[in-house]
Amino acid sequence: MNSKISVFQFYSILFLTRLLTTLTYIPSYTKEINVSDMIFQTLFRFVFGIIIMLPVFYLQEKYGKETSAQNGIYEKTKAVIFSFVFFYFSVATVARLDLFAGTVVFPETDVKFFLLFVVAFCAYGAFLGLMPIARSAVLSVLPVVLSLVFIVFALVKKIDFLNLSPLFYNGIEPLLKTSLNAVGRTVEYAVIAVFLPFVQGNAKKGFFIWMTVQTFVTAGIFFLEATVLGNFSQMQLFPVFTLASMAEFSFFQGLETIITGVWVLCAFLKISFLLYLQAKLITDAFKVKKTHVLAVLGLLLSAICLFVSGSVERFNLVDTSAIKLILVLVSVPLLSVFEIIKRGVKKCVKQ
Amino acid sequence: MRKTVVIIACVLMIASIINRDAFKEDISKRTVVQGVGIDLNDDGTYTVTLETINTENYSNADGTASPVMNIRTLSGKTVYSAIKSAYSIDGKTPLMSQNRVIIIGKSLAEKNIIPALDFFIRDAENYPSVLIAMAETSAEDFFKKSTNDSSVVSRNVERIILTAQEDLTVSSISLCELVNRYKDGASSFYMPIMSVEKVGEKANAVSKGTAIFKNGKLSLTLNEPETVCLNFLCNKAKKGAIDISVNGVPAAVSIIKSQTMRKLDYQSDFPRFNIEIKATADLAELSDKTISSITDKDINKIETNAEIKLKSEIQDFCEKIYKVNKTDPVGLSRLIFIYYPEKYRQQKENLNEIMTQSQYNVEVDIKIRRVGQDYSS
Amino acid sequence: MVIYLKNWYEKKIDEITVPVDNAEEKVSIKLTVSENFKYIKSKLDPSFDVKYRTSEIGKIKFGFVMLDGMCNNELLTEQIMIPVLRYNYDSSDGEKVILTAADRISGSIDKSIQYELNTAIREMLSGNLLMFVDGSARAVLFGVQGFPKRNISEPDSETQERGSKEGFSESFKDNVALVRKRIRSPILKTEVLEVGTTSKTRVCVLYLSDRANEKTVKEVKQKIQNATLDICLGSGYIQPFLEGKVRSCFSGVGVTERPDVLTAKLSEGKVGIITDGTPDALFLPYIFTEHFHSLDDYLKKPYYATSIRLLKIAAFLISVFLPGLYVAICTFHQEVIPETMIFDICLQESFVPLPIMAEALMMHVVFEIVREAGLRMPRSVGNAVSIVGALVIGDAAVNAGLVAAPMLIILGLTAVSSFVIPSLYDVSSVLRFILIIIGGLAGFYGIMIAFAAVLVNMSAIEPFGVPFTSPLSPTKLGAWRDLIIRTDWKKLGANRLNTDRLDK
After folding, report:
1. Is B152 helix (H, G, I), strand (E, B) or coil?
2. What is the DSSP letter of A226?
3. Sign of the CA dihedral with A53 first, then A59, A65, and A68 last
4. How many CB pairs below 8 Å do chains B and C form together?
5. Same domain, yes or no, for C282 and C308?
6. Tell me: the pLDDT tens digits for C308-342?
7. CB-CB contact of B226 with B209 (8 Å)
8. Which of B84, C134, C180, C270 is 20 to 30 A from C495, alpha carbon to alpha carbon?
9. CA-nearest residue of chain A to B93?
10. Residue that wins the pLDDT comparison between B192 and B20
């Protein structure tokens, strides 16, 4: 990975990709938790996020400037693990988009054609490289934020505080469980772990700002969801979409279309970025042609998504919280701790 | 290779365009639904009345516009199957996203309306903000009797319900709000009652009080003065008129702004609800023969009379719905859940009983802002 | 806080701009013609259009410098060269000779004596003939300007309300002279290259030596020289060779018909290219936001310029997205249509036999045909074609039930909007058709995917190292003073933008 991007560009991508996860969350993961607890769950998630990222930043701080052999067995294994993590999340993202499209946008139409369409465009985005994705993310941040602010303004008058519920009504356990699930759904930690050395600027400060911003944004979205929709949100497949459908501004109605737009834009950037990372990791580790890797990845992604499309059971297979959590925990803190120990031992042997 | 891929992509795209099944039918092939009425038949099937835009008979020979609405009556074992059967009439699929209002027939209201609403909660094309009302008789009757050549019944109903913020005698509820109320411990909710009123040749939809539901079933109907109390208790009364009497002279005050604070405290095992209403009003009319100037003393009297009237009416209303009818359409029981979750956990099972034995203290404070031009201090 | 923000913003401006330096070195005129020529060459070369001539009459050596294309040759020969060179000078002393020439010869011509060489050069660049005499520390300037003036026609596609009405013509020298006329400074460099193995077309590369990136200039020259062309009949032949590797409907090379625009671009450190026989010039690197700027913006009040720019952005978005969105909304997202409009749209569309996507495609194809016919036909016939077209795609189509009235409004709005930014017409036209198809197949969802793909594609363009999406992304806040909001000249004039710095 030779190309470097600025902290702002990097965290702009991550802001949008994480926003996508919030916008597309399905309450079935959070059934046991009260709607109001969802707001506070973001704080717990913030803490968990910081904890699991500590080894990554320690590793970067201590051995950041040392480069290890790209073709060593460890490096190759690491590349494979991360590629798998990113691939799994790419599949989950496309599958969720498929579920959304199949349920909301085209309930009476076969969406397979559109899935292929999406994957093809995302592969093209990945093919163009890191810089175009990063620049597009920066360009998208402002319209995305403005769209969200517009919807928030359109929803303010519908806030009803009676829809809130008392904190920790069902105890702290569901809260912790949901927070861990949320950590598991944050592939961005793995992205930071693998991409940190290639970011120009103060990545630590950027990480903290990014965490704070996304915590506030997520908490804000959950607050609106709790106060505007109340328990109704737990009955919806995509509550944020339903929330946006409640928004009305002057004679404008159906503002959920804006959320759809934001969602699709974020999904495009996320899938493109993840595909780019996979291609880059594999290319660097195994010295193969990037175009070929991307073609294979694109085909594989399309094939799996076509298989998953149209079946809720299969969707649950590729979008399981537990698997995601394991993948994030293995690839982020565990691999980093292992590398710290490995490098520490190597240093001791040298001395 | 690249050319081949481009050619294949183009062929696929053209094939998709030509093949009509590849994409959804556009607006010209959809029946735009503006209102839905649901009635329950004796055999357990549903009769669904759809008010749709009539696109078949657009212009007359003289160039004037024809009636633009169709009233269609359909039936089915479920609400969905009944609505879907509209396709067999003109080959057009009903479009639900423009639906303004759901009218529940009395027959359905007396059984249980919740199963009939499932389609509207589950289907993505329906909006959670759609308004719900009950017909005084059957929904089919309501649509058929109130329709005329130039108006859209559903829009009229929507307009009436949305005036709830301007008119204290009309209540309003959306699907989302109804579901939330139902899912609360007391499982009670309310909705406006719509009726048809004939003025000469023309029939119009009008609001006729409010229906209270308990566990999805119609439990009580409220008249218009009671609806005013309901609106105040729900903090939905923002503007509107209150008729009072000052020294035997009829007067009207126009509420400009109102805020209801609902507080709760516990005395032993039973909650005490303190309801404070603060309103600002204008003196709209004082039907006094002498048309004399109004003094500070008069203003105080008007304020006091309005406060006393509203307070006693609301107090009576609370007695009626909580103690006699044992329902909680206002959602006061939710305050227990929010402020005393542990008590709520203990009393959840017999919440309606608890509400029966609760205290309801109502305080009303009305300030007259303007009295017109004939003021003298 | 306010002061901190102000300082921060000024710092951002400093990062992206270079202060304008008015100071100029003062150099006395040398005593020999060769020394003066040497100095001028050091300042002006390479500049093919600067002509040097020396003549010796007896012991007196005269030196003339002039700018080809900027002087009236007839006047120069008959009124200056012949009298000066045929005059019988009393003395061979340089000082006396030059004073005599200035005083007694060519009385009807404007003359002035200069002692400072840089000022003399500047005057010469304005079209004056500069004369030196060996042994004199003075120079005489003869006013024989004859550069192309108003007979040059007004550009068709870049009309401005205010500002010059001059446009580039087919004359290569005149075009260069039109730029030279606007930059009377030695820093303007003009280098001639040849393109086309058979045509040997002259191509002039123009740049300002103190601000253009040397690497860019070198690369441009190299790319032009390496252009494998047999003949070159216009700047469009060279343009693809200057664009990057990324395939896109957007271009990193700008085109202008206006010498003043080219001058402005050169002043930002860009490189201009004038091709012989073409009434337009290329300039690069060209970034996306420049499409929304026009010379009028800079000649009018800032608030007006800002509102016009916003209008242009809106027009571009309408011209690209509106038909696609309409098709998407009518096909997939009917919930977006306000209740007051749904009646009319529903009724009107129900009479049209075609699906909305096909209807939109048909109408836009018809419009493009009418536009193309109007463009290619002689002007008088073109008008007739437009009228017939308006009737066909207007009232008649609606009455025949072929098209719904809302679609016609969409078409009209789109068509008018697409003409607001002529430089983006090609792009908006192609994208519009693509988005109509995608909107009809995949709704807003598909439109957003296509938009994202176009965004990434656009972000991948890097004309000569400058990102096409700069200064939006990478974000260069300092350059935002002339992005949508156009700052006052009092502030804008003090610092000039350096394109080179947009790439970091």
Report:
1. coil
2. I
3. negative
4. 69
5. no
6. 999 999 999 999 999 999 999 988 888 888 877 88
7. yes
8. C180
9. A108
10. B192
Dihedral (C-alpha) A105, A111, A116, A119: value to the nearest 10 degrees?
Answer: 40
Q: What token pair was written down for C408?
A: 């016609």
SS3 B276: strand
| C277 and C304, same domain (yes or no) | no
Q: Are C129 and C186 in the same domain?
A: no
User: Which of B12, B18, B26 is the best substitution to test chain C (most C C-beta atoms within 10 A)?
Assistant: B26
Token representation of residue B372: 């017109």
Do both C131 and C37 map to the same domain? yes
This prediction's pTM: 0.85
Other CB atoms closer than 10 Å to residue C197's CB: what's the count?
11
Domain A5-65+74-350 class in CATH: mainly alpha
**Do C329 and C448 share a structural domain?**
yes
Residue B14 is predicted with a pLDDT of: 63
Structural domain containing residue C71 = 33-142
Q: In sequence order, what are the beta bridge partners of B194?
A: B135, B207
Domain B224-377 part of CATH 3.30.300.210: yes
Q: Is A245 on the interface with B (CB under 8 A)?
A: yes
User: How confident is the model at residue B369, as a pLDDT?
Assistant: 85
Which tokens go with A174? 């569901």
Nearest residue, CB atoms, C459 vs list A135, A261, A264: A135
Q: Is C337 on the interface with B (CB under 8 A)?
A: yes
CB pairs under 8 A, 24+ apart, for B39-43? B39/B105, B39/B107, B39/B108, B39/B138, B39/B139, B39/B140, B40/B105, B40/B107, B40/B108, B40/B111, B40/B116, B41/B75, B41/B107
Could you tell me which residues of chain B have a Cβ less than 8 Å from any Cβ in chain A? 16, 22-24, 93, 97, 121, 124-125, 127-129, 176-177, 179-180, 183, 331, 334-335, 337-339, 341
Domain ranges of chain B: 26-222, 224-377
Domain boundaries, chain A: 5-65+74-350
Instruction: Round to whole Å and give the CA distance between A37 and A74.
Output: 42
Closest Cα partner for C134 from C44, C33, C28? C33
Starting at the earlier edge strand, list the strands of the sheet with C271-275: C188-195, C201-208, C271-275, C281-284, C254-256
Same domain, C334 and C397: yes
Touching A (3+ Cβ pairs <8 A), the chains are B, C
Chain C hits for B13, Cβ within 8 Å: 437, 441
Residue type, B40: L
For residue C32, give the 3-state DSSP assignment: coil
Which residue, of C126, C142, C158, is where some domain finishes? Answer: C142
SS3 sequence of A7-44: HHHHHHHHHHHHHHHHHCCCHHHHCCCCCCHHHHHHHH
Instruction: Give the residue among C321, C335, C333, C359 at the shortest CA–CA distance from C447.
Output: C321
Res A208 pLDDT > 90 = yes
**Is B24 within 8 Å of A106 when comparing Cβ atoms?**
yes
The bridge status of strand A5-6 relative to strand A199-200 is: parallel
Return the structure tokens found at A49.
């996020």
Check residue B192 and give its pLDDT.
94
Given A117, A128, A257, which is nearest C333 (Cβ)? Answer: A257
Q: How many domains does chain C have?
A: 3
Choose among C146, C24, C161, C180: nearest CA to C78.
C146
Please report the pLDDT score of residue B212 as a whole number. Answer: 93
CB B169 within 8 A of CB B224: yes
Query: Which of A3-12, A49-58, C375-384 is predicted with the least confidence, judged by mean pLDDT?
Result: C375-384
ipTM of predicted complex = 0.89
> How large is the average pLDDT for residues A140-146?
93
- List pLDDT tens digits, range C62-105: 899 988 888 888 888 888 888 888 887 777 788 888 888 888 77
* Lowest mean pLDDT across B13-17, B230-234, C156-160, C474-478: B13-17
B147 and B69 Cβ atoms separated by less than 8 Å? yes
Judgement on whether residues C131 and C227 belong to the same structural domain of the protein: no
